[in-house]
């Protein structure tokens, strides 16, 4: 079984996804007229100007913070360090490219998730890739395979991975035994996830901005005290990406190592094209009431995750001089902790441990929300199946805190790779619909109107869309 999983990972990660994700991002960037560059201010406007509240779904800001809760995790701390150790500073450049192109991909997938969303038995909005695969592409089989992979990887295995990171950091900084950490995290996560998606959204809305803000303030302090070296480090990142300058410390991996590790770790971090964030994007009430506005919200999430937070981590590591590319050099979380120790002393590892606690905890609850949407698609959104899933998530959180997770991490990699492959296939098939929605949104903006999408104005989009959602007179309801 391990041999099969390793082979699948080699093929999908080293060939299909590295080039498939970059190609998909480039395709949507071109097809949508460089939307992430030409309309960059709109990515912020749909959040700052949002007024949407509804009993049917969560707000755009809540959708952004839940998706960031999943995106901003160990990948932003340990993942960046792994990318630098294995791919050199140049790997960060390719993480940037993945993010900039991924903003268009994330826009496309979340726009489709909004368009094809449905109401569940309680009247709550649900949707995601499985729904647009079934209702847009016309393949329920794609949706079933995607949903199973999502539940396996995000719902279960990644919960153990995040818990393991919390456990290791708590043991290293405070000497807390893994079983105690596991019980504590499982208990608190259980309280949140048993409250459902609305509970997750409320917690994420409070924790995510605070944790990201504090982390960025520490990074800003590090950058300010070493400001003279920052331009040289940024130049090193770009030059190393193309092999123009070898990294200090003897890194010899070359351009391919930088490309592969930057793309892989970039996807791990921002999840653009993977099909995860659209599950929460579909539960939001968009403002303006148009599918594209929620696509813009999730595109902003990619920018914040990688361009802002991952870059902050990378600069802290590179400015510290703590990177040792030898076989015995520190990597992962240890490298990040060592780097911050160089900047702020013994408080460094403690700060990273606390950051990991919040980053990884919010990833656990954010990932669960994705799994719940997949359960809805599989027809398992009833009380008993969801109780089983919640109990399983809590069990995996405890297990991950006390056991090494390397044995199942390869399986999670494979499951995530299958998810991403199916998802990018679906959004490419539906790219014409994405382009049409984009034109409709920005044509209305150009006419000075608030962009609204009404199903009755687009009669040829007549398959798989709930007209009761998209024929609402939003302005009349507000009045």
UniProtKB/TrEMBL annotation:
Question: What GO terms fall under cellular component here?
Answer: plasma membrane
Q: Where in the cell is it found?
A: Cell inner membrane; Cell membrane
Which UniProt keywords are listed?
A: Cell inner membrane, Cell membrane, Membrane, Symport, Transmembrane, Transmembrane helix, Transport
* Membrane topology label: Multi-pass membrane protein
Q: Does the keyword Membrane apply?
A: yes
Which InterPro entries does this one have?
Na/Ala_symport
Transmembrane regions: 12-34, 142-161, 173-195, 207-227, 233-260, 300-323, 350-371, 383-402, 408-430
Q: Which GO terms describe its molecular function?
A: amino acid:sodium symporter activity
Where is this protein chiefly located? membrane
Provide the family line. Answer: Belongs to the alanine or glycine:cation symporter (AGCS) (TC 2.A.25) family.
This one is known as Alanine or glycine:cation symporter, AGCS family
UniProt organism field: Loktanella fryxellensis
């Amino acid at each position: 079984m391990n041999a099969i999983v390793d082979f699948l990972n080699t093929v999908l990660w080293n060939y299909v996804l590295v080039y498939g994700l970059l190609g998909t991002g480039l395709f949507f960037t071109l097809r949508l007229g460089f939307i992430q560059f030409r309309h960059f201010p709109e990515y912020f406007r749909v959040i700052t100007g949002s007024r949407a509240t509804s009993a049917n779904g969560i707000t755009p800001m809540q959708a952004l913070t839940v998706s960031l809760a999943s995106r901003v995790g160990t990948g932003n701390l340990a993942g960046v360090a792994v990318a630098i150790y294995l791919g050199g500073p140049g790997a960060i450049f390719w993480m940037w490219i993945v993010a900039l192109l991924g903003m268009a991909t994330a826009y496309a997938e979340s726009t489709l998730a909004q368009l094809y969303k449905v109401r569940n038995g309680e009247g709550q909005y649900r949707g995601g890739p499985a729904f647009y695969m079934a209702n847009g592409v016309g393949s329920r089989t794609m949706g079933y395979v995607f949903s199973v992979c999502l539940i396996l990887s995000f719902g279960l295995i990644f919960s153990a991975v995040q818990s393991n990171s919390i456990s290791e950091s708590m043991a290293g900084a405070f000497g807390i035994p893994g079983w105690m950490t596991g019980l504590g995290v499982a208990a608190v996560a259980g309280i949140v996830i048993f409250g459902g998606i609305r509970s997750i959204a409320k917690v994420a809305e409070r924790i995510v901005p605070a944790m990201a803000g504090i982390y960025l303030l520490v990074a800003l302090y590090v950058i300010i005290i070493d400001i003279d070296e920052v331009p040289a480090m940024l130049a090193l990142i770009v030059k190393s990406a193309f092999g123009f300058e070898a990294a200090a410390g003897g890194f010899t991996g070359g351009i391919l190592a930088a490309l592969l590790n930057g793309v892989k770790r970039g996807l791990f971090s921002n999840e653009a094209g993977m099909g995860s964030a659209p599950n929460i994007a579909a539960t939001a009430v968009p403002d303006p009431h148009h599918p594209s506005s929620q696509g813009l919200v999730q595109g902003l999430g990619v920018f914040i995750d990688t361009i802002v937070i991952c870059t902050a981590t990378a600069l802290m590591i590179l400015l510290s001089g703590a990177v040792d590319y030898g076989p015995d050099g520190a990597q992962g979380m240890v490298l990040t902790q060592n780097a911050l120790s160089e900047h702020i002393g013994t408080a460094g590892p403690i700060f990273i441990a606390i950051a990991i606690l919040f980053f990884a905890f919010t990833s656990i609850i954010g990932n669960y929300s994705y799994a719940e949407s997949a359960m809805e698609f599989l027809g398992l959104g009833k009380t008993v199946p969801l109780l089983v899933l919640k109990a399983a998530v809590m069990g995996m959180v405890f297990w991950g805190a006390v056991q090494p997770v390397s044995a199942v991490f390869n399986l999670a990699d494979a499951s995530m790779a299958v998810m991403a492959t199916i998802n990018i296939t679906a959004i490419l098939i539906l790219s014409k619909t994405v382009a049409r929605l984009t034109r409709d949104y920005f044509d209305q903006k150009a006419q000075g109107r608030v962009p609204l999408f009404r199903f009755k104005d687009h009669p040829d989009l007549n398959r798989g869309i709930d007209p009761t959602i998209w024929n609402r007179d939003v302005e009349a309801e507000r009045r």
